[in-house]
Amino acid sequence: MTTDEIERLAADLKELPDGLDTPDQLLFATLRELYGNFRSGYVDRERAKREKSRIYVAYYELKNQYAIMEQHLGIRRRLQNNIGDVYQCGCENCRKLLNVLVGIDREDVPTDTKEANATIERLRELVKERSERNAVLATTIDRVRWALEKNDIERAREIINENQHKKLNDPQG
Ligand SMILES: [Zn+2]
Fold this sequence. Notes:
The protein has one domain (about 5-170). The protein has eight helices and no strands. It has helices spanning about 5-10, 20-40, 45-80, 85-90, 90-100, 110-130, 135-150, 155-170. Zinc ion binds near residues 91 and 94.
């Protein structure tokens, strides 16, 4: 549906049409309110004109951001189908890629995240060394990575701390 079609329906104070994306729905709702207020005489013609052009500026901005977001979500969905192999691999290139995906390649990343990632690498080494604890540690790594992927740094630290306490309380570990 074009913006002209959306505006025509809004001007006729019609019901929100099906199948619009979020920015189009907002455009429709905002224009319909403006037209309604104009018709009722609450808003005069000059003010309605000014507001309408501001509504359109905001709409095109939002529409642009929405398109970028959709594009990123699409990339993420496609990556999720292949990410298991990257986790498993553990080579330098895959680690770099994971860091980019999780966002810890940036300069402004909190030290917490860098520490968490370093801990993941230590845990990975432990997995290699201690076969009897493989399953537990592998699960911990998966959980920490999952938390980091969700940008939940607090949760990642909790999981790491839990694991470290377990080790302290388990002299065999
Ligand atoms: Zn690799």
